[in-house]
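>> received
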Amino acid sequence: MQLLHTPEGVRDIYNEECKTRTYIAGILQKTIESFGFEQIITPVFEYFEVFSSERGTVAARDMYKFFDRDGNTLVLRPDITPAVARCVAKYYRDETAPIRLCYNGNTFINGHELRGNLKETTQIGAELINDASVEADAEMLALTCECLKNVGLKDFRVEIGIAGFFKALVSEAGLSLDETELLRASIIDKNTFGMEDVLENRKISAETKNALLKLPELFGNMQSLPEVKKITTNPEALESIERLEKLFGLLKAYGCEEYITYDLGALSKYEYYTGITFSAFTYGTGNPVLTGGRYDSLVSQFGKDAPAIGLAFLLDELMAALSRQKLLPKMPGDTLKLRYFPDSYEEAVKKAMELRRSGKKCELVKE
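>> returned
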């Protein structure tokens, strides 16, 4: 009986759910491709070094690791973005024009914090490489909104953070790498006591300490961004806020500003993000249905200096949200059943093949 069950964290998808899931994935892929993105397929497993801690991706203990016959450490990919970055550095090394790539693939994370949740998840994403402009940021956010509307969502929000603001303040505070990670975790958890513990007894200016402690409170609509600039005089931090202000202005051209908010305390666990980060939320799931951000230094780790920004829809979370909001489409039963008696087999086969060649689904049923 054990062989009939799947391991913890993975599951079978079949019948109506499988059909609907394929349909929703098709809408996302068609929308992404309408923005000029081309499909890329990367291997399900790669060398461990592609996703090692130097890349700022998933912790090594949370990866599924194994060895090939030569003793190399391989991993099931926990994240697709570093794999795309590797491909760009290999196949587009001398390309300077914007590169638009998209994908549909599964990722695998064996984390204890995911107990009870899926360890194999499907991501449908897009990466825009060789474009450092704020216009590229705006386009990826507009693509996010367009995809969510096309799958049927009406009530959602896209929450923007910006890694540069936090990094500028941490650099000014002179925190070590370990202290920075403790502070990051406390901010993500909205743990003010943990933040105070990290900053206590540090020789930090009152302005910088106050700005860091206020990070979990710095969120709202884009019109309130000018207030944020009053809490710091750090030029790099202010530059980050000014970029967000310009970004909001560009989003008005797409007509999607109503879905956008900011949260400067929304820090990503992925270290490779250097600019804006964003997540999309809706009713029916406590987790984001999409994550993304700018990673201007990741591709260079593979040998090509190239700014980039990407996004990834978390298909399992999106399906859960659509289901709970009763927005999943009812898929038609469009397979024709062609019944035949044994003495009319050849005639039935001929008719079935005609139907299939005309684009119909046809199932032969022997009476």
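>> Residues 15-34 form the longest helix (20 residues).
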